[in-house]
Amino acid sequence: MHNLSEWSHDHIFDEGNYAAERGAHAVMWITALMMVIEIFAGWWFNSMALLADGWHMSSHAVAIGVSAFAYAAARRYARDPRFAFGTWKIEVLGGFASAIFLLGVAAMMVVGSVERIFSPQPIHYQEAMIIAAIGLVVNIVCAMILGNLHEHHDHHDDHRGHGHSHGHDLNLKSIYLHVIADAATSVLAIIALAGGLMYGWSWLDPVMGIVGAGLVAIWAKNLIMETGKVLLDREMDHPVVQEIREAVETGPEAGGTRVADLHVWRVGKRTYSCALTVVTYDKDLTPKRVRDQLFQHEEIVHATVEIHLCPYMDACPP
């Protein structure tokens, strides 16, 4: 049988969260180091392309830092009784803020690329390509670190029995998207620099910048929708809602129990709470019995139940 205190204790000592926090810090420092290298190289070689990419990476380092801070804050306040359902939404909020930041990065990339179309700058193509290639390797390494963390996190949750609930760490996903966005823009930069070096297509660099900005904006939009859904408690279209109804409702021969009012919201990556009102003419039905039926589903960890008893079936409101 589930209860909220058991879930909160489980969440506090979530091994996957500790691993994700360590991974976030590692990726943040690696990204910051590569940012310094790119900015310095861009200044040394007088390459506006490398400078732009370096500052672009700096914005990602800040966003990843925000996500790392979210893990630390969630851990610090995990036992704070002021948080009714724990602190996991701090991590989701970190992912949401990071996605907003990502949209800002995309907008700056578009502005910078348009400026370069109308005011081209000389580029040291060979030097810029070398640094861009190093940046790509760094991004691939960071993506591998985060990918391993994601697999470990899913395996850990499956081992705890929540694999069927279709949840995942949105904060970790936001960091992964930042790294993938960096890798994608590095690939586009290499293609653009190669075109400029071999064919003199200087226009390809800003055009690829706009294409990369479009990809970043699409990823950010999807992440905003996912995190916003959690923050706004938009869960009534989740399969768990139908599971709750099926667990509680009965036919006329068993009391004619129906769910008259139902509210479901997420209180963890794969866990849910609900408040429901049922109408029934089953005189033996109690809130405890309803909760026992609900807690057969492992993802439901807390339930508030109100029962309206009708004298007979026809007296129950439709």
Describe the structure.
With about 325 residues, this protein is mostly helical. It has helices at about 5-10, 15-45, 50-75, 90-120, 125-160, 170-200, 205-230, 240-250, 285-295; strands at about 260-265, 270-280, 300-310. Residues about 1-15 and about 160-165 have low confidence and may be disordered.
Low-confidence stretches: 1-13, 158-167
CATH architecture of the largest domain: Up-down Bundle
Q: What's the helix count?
A: 9
Average pLDDT: 78
Biggest sheet strand order reads 1-2-3
Q: CATH H-level name of the largest domain... which superfamily?
A: Cation efflux protein transmembrane domain
Number of strands: 3
Helicity level: 55-70%
Key descriptive features of the protein:
disordered N terminus, Alpha-lytic protease prodomain-like, Alpha-Beta Plaits, 318 residues, 2 domains
Task: Tell me the layout of helices and strands.
Elements: H1 4-12, H2 15-44, H3 48-76, H4 88-118, H5 125-159, H6 170-199, H7 204-231, H8 239-248, E1 258-266, E2 272-280, H9 287-294, E3 300-309
Parallel strand pairs: 2-3
Antiparallel strand pairs: 1-2
Helix pairs in contact: 2-3, 2-5, 3-4, 3-6, 4-6, 4-7, 5-6, 6-7
Short structural summary:
This protein has 318 residues and is mostly helical. It has two domains: 4-231, Cation efflux protein transmembrane domain (Alpha-lytic protease prodomain-like); 239-315, 2-Layer Sandwich (Alpha-Beta Plaits).
